[in-house]
Amino acid sequence: MPHIAILSASVRKGRNSHRTALYFKKFIESENLASVEILDLQEYDFPIFEERLRFFENPTTEMLDFAAKIKAADGVLIVTPEYNGGYPASLKNVVDLLYDEWRKKPVAICTNSAGPFGGAQVMASIQFSLWKIGAWTVPAMFPVPKVQETFDENGQPADQAATDKRATVFINELLWCIEAKKRMT
């Protein structure tokens, strides 16, 4: 069974995109699609990095733990909010921290916003950063408009059937990429 790391990127107080990360964890587990864990950047509380991990003289245990979890995952699902048309500094920070860990890693991207467009503006910028370091971005999107209305605090969707239908297509694309990578290595 593949292993998926869900990267919950928001570290804001009162964040809403984490609701989507909780939903995906429950959905993937309930459908028995993969083993899954949430890597919550709010829990890691990383400093702003001045260098890639491989150049750190004394990396912290948290840095090494995070890198190992990304490396060990068969695929990564990034759940990110859109802030002013971009993605949060917390996400840019960990994308830039790692390098080899991202190389050819299947990465699915879920964008969230409080407005009606679901974070669509952030997609190109996060995709470009991931491409530059050699990650394999999955050719599927999962935008979540009005995230505060779409999921409750525990990740329960307002419209379970419609959300599960969209999630099935999205996660199946990630799983296809994971299987393709496995066959190519």
TrEMBL record:
GO terms for cellular component: cytosol. Residues 3-146 form the NADPH-dependent FMN reductase-like domain. Pfam families: FMN_red. It comes from the Bacteria. Signal peptide: none annotated. Gene3D superfamilies: 3.40.50.360. One of its GO terms (molecular function) is oxidoreductase activity. This is NADPH-dependent FMN reductase.
